[in-house]
């Protein structure tokens, strides 16, 4: 089953194309450095304020409750790509699997290239936030974050860590890689929250 979530902009009272964005048919690559090598037999680590800190194997992770969604993708540098077909695990399914503690407020995403990004738990706890391993029905290409990345269609795409290695549930906010370097921590495309 495929779920179309491209009406998401209505929640933000905005047009499908956020202000200051232009639509592209291509899928540009934006990385802070080289594409890191990630084992085909990857693992995913959950730590911090959860009942069950644990490491999932790729097979365990993919078996949880995968879903396919059609989503839009907005890069802070000004391009948007409509109708991306992503297959992965919705964030709330992972949260259920590990049991999030009451004092958890934020989530730090960690990646194999040293990248980090943080979102409030409430902003992660939505089905459109997904850990993605396939794009258009094919394994996610390495340059786009394969074997596993995060997508955040309600935020600029820097909130979605490519090559994600795990998540850390935090009781206090922390700034991620780009957020420390002047990008907006809230990153709402319909408000043009690009810089802090
Ligand atoms: N691990 C990691 N994730 C990352 C980045 C990165 O450099 N490293 N770049 C971010 C930025 S700025 C954007 S716009 C998107 C780009 O995703 P794409 O290369 O698939 O278009 O990934 C985000 N996630
Ligand atoms: Mo970006």
What can you see in these coordinates?
- It is globular and about 40 Å long.
- Strands 1, 2, 5, 6, 9, 10 and 11 form a seven-stranded mixed β-sheet that branches. A five-stranded mixed β-sheet has the order 4-3-12-7-8.
- The protein is mainly beta and 196 residues long.
- Helices cover 9% and strands 33% of the residues.
- It is built from three helices and twelve strands; from the N terminus they run ββββαββαββαββββ.
- It has a single domain (2-19, 42-181), classed as Oxidoreductase, molybdopterin-binding domain (Sulfite Oxidase, Chain A, domain 2).
- It has helices at 58-62, 91-98, 121-124; strands spanning 2-4, 22-23, 43-48, 54-57, 67-74, 79-90, 106-111, 116-120, 130-135, 138-139, 149-151, 164-170.
- The relative contact order is 0.22.
- Molybdenum atom binds next to loops.
Short description:
The protein is mainly beta and 196 residues long.
Radius of gyration, whole Å: 16 Å
CATH superfamily: Oxidoreductase, molybdopterin-binding domain
Number of strand segments: 12
Largest sheet: 7 strands, mixed
* Global geometry: globular
Count the DSSP helices.
3
Give the ordered list of helices and strands: EEEEHEEHEEHEEEE
Residue stretches low in confidence (pLDDT < 50, at least 5 long) are none
What's the average pLDDT? 98
> What ligand species are in this complex?
the ligand Nc1nc2c(c(=O)[nH]1)N[C@H]1C(S)=C(S)[C@@H](COP(=O)(O)O)O[C@H]1N2, molybdenum atom
| Integer count of domains | 1
Annotated CATH architecture: Alpha-Beta Complex
């Amino acid at each position: 089953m495929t779920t179309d979530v491209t009406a998401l902009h209505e929640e933000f009272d905005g047009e499908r194309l956020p202000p200051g964005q232009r639509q592209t048919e291509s899928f540009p690559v934006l990385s802070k450095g080289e594409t890191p090598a990630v084992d085909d037999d990857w693992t995913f680590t959950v730590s911090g304020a959860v009942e069950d800190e644990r490491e999932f194997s790729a097979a365990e992770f993919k078996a949880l409750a995968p879903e396919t969604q059609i989503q839009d993708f907005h890069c802070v540098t000004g391009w948007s790509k409509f109708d991306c077909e992503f297959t992965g695990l919705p964030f709330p399914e992972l949260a259920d699997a590990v049991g999030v503690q009451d004092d958890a407020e934020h989530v730090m995403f960690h990646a194999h290239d040293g990248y980090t990004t943080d979102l409030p738990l409430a902003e992660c706890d939505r089905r459109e936030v997904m850990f993605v391993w396939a794009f258009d029905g094919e394994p996610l290409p390495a340059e786009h974050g394969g074997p596993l990345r995060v997508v955040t269609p309600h935020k600029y795409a820097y909130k979605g860590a490519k090559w994600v290695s795990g998540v850390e549930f935090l009781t206090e906010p922390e700034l991620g890689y780009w957020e420390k370097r002047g990008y907006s921590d809230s990153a709402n495309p319909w408000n043009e929250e690009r810089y802090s």
